[in-house]
Amino acid sequence: MIEPGTIEDLARRIGALLPPGLDDAKRDVEKNLRAVLQSWFDRLDLVTREEFEVQKAVLAKTRAKLEALEQQLAELEGE
Hints:
The chain is mainly α. The radius of gyration is 24 Å and the shape is rod-shaped.
């Protein structure tokens, strides 16, 4: 899930590109962009940076355990 602030920021930035005096159009564009961006990001099935970092740590720990087991096995086979 992407952070809601990111979608709001993107919509505001794109809306800011519209010329001044088109405030109603600007609000409509921003509103529609928010909906489109949220839908698009939801379909991508994204994870947060925090979730990614947790999984990265789990993978590193698992890899370290696997390497230790491989070393133990090599020592046992060498005896």
